Amino acid sequence: MPFAQQHYPFERKELFETIFPADFIAEGLDQTRGWFYTLNVIATALRDDTPYKNLIVNGIVLNDKGEKMSKSKKNYPDPEIEIINQFGADAMRLYLINSGLVKAQSLNFSKDGVQEVIKNVFLPWYNAYRFLIQNLQRYESVLGKFEFDENAITKGDNTMDKWIVSSSQTLVEFVRNEMEAYRLYTIVPRLISYLDTLTNWYVRLNRGRIKGDQGNQEWVVSLNVLFDVLLKITLLMSPYVPFITESFYQNLKKCIPQGKNNQESIHFLQIPEVRKELIDPKIESQVEKMQIVVESARKLREAHKLSLKQPVNSLTILATDEQLLQSVQFLSKYIEEEINTPSVLVEKNIDQYIQLKAEPDNKICGQELKDKFGPDLIQQVRNFTQEQIRTLKSEGKLQLKVKVKKEKKVEEQVQQQPDPKAKKGKKNVEYIEVELDCELLLKHVKITDQFNTEKHKQLLFATEDGFSIILDPSQTQELKNLGLAREFTNRIQKLRKKLGFIIGGQNPYLLSI
Fold first, then answer.
1. From CA 412, how far away is CA 323, in angstroms rounded?
2. How high is the mean pLDDT in each 10-residue block of the chain (513 residues)?
3. pTM score
4. Which of 2, 199, 324, 359 has the fewest CB within 10 Å, making it most exposed?
5. Where are the domains of the chain?
6. Where are the extended beta strands (E) located within 286-423?
């Protein structure tokens, strides 16, 4: 920092003025009463000012038992031999900066945590990268040299392309804003979340297009879209995992035309600029709703041990949220594919399937409603109509009239011989019933969805926040045949992988049933 470095205030005063205060300083939590404190004392004494604009504090790394690491005790794994040589420096870096350390919290270091980074982040990311490279090679074997065209990402009308491009630009905007605000702890979790979205949603839902199964035009557009978003996430991740990103970039840049994005190293590139014209909040919201529905349906299938290879007759989404229902209808073909069903239905009239039940929360009601909480209120809540419950859910409150008993005290003299130990009077208590206004809030009531099992015995039901889903697992012969075909395809793909067959290769098969 400039005080000792510039020998201020004894020398270099003009230079000092140009660099004070510092944009940011960074040190460990242990410097709270050390360097951080000393800087503030000196700056206050000499300048009556703070010596920095931003302060970044990291926590302390402890061993897996929460103990301070000690060279003499050797109570921690060797960083080079046991961590870097086994898992790589990038895995350790990402493990550390995706932890509470960047928020001044301590971390119990775990080798398993480093290994999880490889399993949950690097491998899916690498598989998406490899999938792109394989299909670029296939493209070039059929149509000639592939050259990345940034303008091609807007030439198609595929919903998933528009969504992933919009999400990518939203991510770039987020990273730039957080970097400028020095909120470094928010960035890596968001980057990892985007990688999960890219690998488990976009690539999964567009494998056929990226392989060229839907014609050359879709092939070109989908390859350019995947290339664009992979290049951007690789560039955004490069400050955190410099080695794996450099490896990816050196291969990707073979398809990048000469210009600002084709440099000797990825670390010579600038963070991408935001193209706000490509951001579509509506389509991002629609896909997010679709993802929630798909995840809920998957959980319901798993809960009832229904294999995804076997089709189910239908999936019905019950909701009153018009935007949710529109999103489901708009993206129904992707839901059908992911849930393996020929029919996705939406239903606003949920009364035929679901009965809402209300029960007062005794603890909260007793604390907040006081004497208004009694048998009459309990009975009213339990007898709420479906319309009353929905009003309470949507508006957050409901006006009621409740009957309560109030004490009426009467003094009655006792006609007896005086007795110094006896009470002079006796209180008789009478009660009168009064009606009071009561504002019942949503937090005062527990609301549950109860599926009408008697009317719909064969259906499977689950409720989520804001909607419910119904699976009809009944099987027609056609659905059974589709399930058998899917199982057969799965076995063939596993066999091809085991034998090392290339994608698109023609190989004979003998099927014995």
1. 68
2. 79 85 88 87 89 89 85 83 88 92 89 92 96 94 92 91 96 95 92 95 94 91 96 96 96 91 92 94 94 94 89 90 90 93 88 83 88 87 88 88 74 52 56 76 86 73 86 85 78 78 65 61
3. 0.79
4. 359
5. 111-279, 298-353+454-473, 355-409+428-447, 475-504
6. 314-318, 344-347, 354-360, 397-413
